[in-house]
Amino acid sequence: MPATQESLDTLRVALVDLLGDRGVSTDQRTRERASVDEATMSPILTEQLPLGLADLVAYPASADEIAAVLQLAARHGVPVTTRGKGTGNYGQGIPLHGGVVLDTSRARAVVEVGDGYVTAEAGASMVSLEQAAAAAGQQLWMYPSTAQSTIGGFLSGGSGGTGSISHGSNWEGFVTALDIALPGEDGLLHVEGAEAQTFVHTYGTAGVIARATVRLEPLQDWRAVYATFPTFEQALTAVRTLRGTTPAPRLVSADRAEIAAKLPKDPAIAVDRASLRGIIDGVVLEESRDLIEAAGGTVEDVREGLQQTTKVSMLSYNHPIWWLKRNSPDTVWFHVEVGGEALIDRIAEVEAVYPGALLHIEAAHIGPIGMLTAPYTGAEDVYAGYPALRDLGVRVHSPHQYYVDHGVEELVALKQRTDPAGLLNPGHVIDPALVESGGSTASAQPSIPGFGK
User: Fold this and answer.
1) Contact between residue 156 and residue 201 where contact means Cβ atoms under 8 Å apart
2) CA-to-CA distance for 226 and 354, rounded, in angstroms?
3) In 3-state terms, what secondary structure has residue 156?
4) DSSP alpha helices (H): ranges in 198-337?
5) Helix axes 126-135, 306-313, angle to 10 degrees
6) pLDDT in tens, 34-47
7) 448 falls in which pLDDT band (50, 70, 90)?
8) How far is the C-alpha of 134 from the C-alpha of 136, rounded, in Å?
9) With bands split at pLDDT 50, 70 and 90, how would you rate the model's confidence at 444?
10) CB neighbours of residue 231 within 10 Å
11) What pTM does this model have?
12) Residue-by-residue DSSP string for 318-347
């Protein structure tokens, strides 16, 4: 239920007292910007926009202020939708019922770097955490392909990315502790271990992550490796063999020449050859070169340094599809998240499911995963391809939805305890049975661990 104007007006005064004039906005354009994410990646979601509009935007500058904003909103019965940098692709940060968008991007302190862990406030960017870890001779277990996204946003709405070949998804041991803001409770609730994991990938619907502690490991000598291949099928072979090196790569991505031609211009990415980019440990650099050449490829360049490996991360997961969309203005593209060995073994059949389809592929701890993209001809055509993909042995996850579809039964039970009034990101949790059947917006399937934001 949307908040009354009286409640919103009273809340705005209270938020200004807490955060100052610059910490609260009712400006129309500001509210519009705070009410969208990268859901425009999906033409199906785009057709439904705008889905909601914030009445207020609040900018707390610390974990304690995040909790204080939530308490004020709860006291006045105003819904709260939490936001990081707005880099999510699924509409999970859209305030479907208005209210307050709680923008955490100013709460960006890196609190502590210890032996095997880093603690930071929700608005700290993942790249800043990686830099802080590197200064201490360590590295994050994982970070999303959008490296400038926030730790709170990644844990709330993301799944995995760079580092997931070894460590899986961000709900598989990456998080060791969280400080959670809850409606009806002063201050922050500290949770650890398995209890902390229950708040991960819940879109801020059961509690607002205000501070997080995540795992680090010893720093490795990573190199950014660029290779090209005459055919995509040869690149697929290299994706499979590179994944098996020890130590494992931090990332391996590959694209057909048609997608590679749309990526940012780089002398190591040919416009007429399939492209492979990897983050490879220096210990296995020569072994990796041999595997690439054995698959028919050519190593075009090897680059050192965090800036270069981050650049490779930013050309993985959804990013190649984003560049394809941006640089193909005459075509509307959709994508479907897919996984399984059939992406390599039966690539021609997989791409034949949709006319004009192209696959972007990633190596992952559960086998290859990817984004199957094709020209958009309508939502019904998109969903009609899902059974055909499954018949080929492909796992399918729909990106065309704004509700949580991972661990929903457990989330519903948790939310009944932590948010009985339903003020946290309302509309983004639906009946578990509807999730399995597709709900109101998509033919949803169980999430594929390892997909990045």
Assistant:
1) yes
2) 29
3) helix
4) 232-242, 257-260, 285-294, 306-313, 319-326
5) 150
6) 999 999 999 999 99
7) very low
8) 5
9) very low
10) 15
11) 0.93
12) THHHHHHHHT-TT--EEEEEEESTHHHHTH
| Residue-wise burial string across 204-215, b where 16 or more C-beta atoms lie within 10 A, e elsewhere | bbbbbbbbbbbb
Q: In terms of C-beta density within 10 A (0-12 exposed, 13-18 middle, 19 or more buried), how is residue 112 classed?
A: exposed
Instruction: Please give the structure tokens belonging to residue 441.
Output: 């917006």
In which band, very low, low, confident or very high, does the pLDDT at 434 lie, cut at 50, 70 and 90?
low
Structure tokens at 9: 């007006």
What whole-number distance in Å separates Cα of residue 63 and Cα of residue 233? 48
Over residues 292-347, the pLDDT tens digits come to 999 999 999 999 999 999 999 999 999 999 999 999 999 999 999 999 999 999 99
Cα separation, 422 vs 286, in Å, equals 55
**Mean pLDDT throughout 404-424?**
93
b/e map of 253-271 (b: 16 or more CB within 10 Å)? bbbbbbbbbbbeeeebbbe
All domains in the chain, ordered by first residue: 110-219 (3.30.465.10), 222-397 (3.40.462.40)
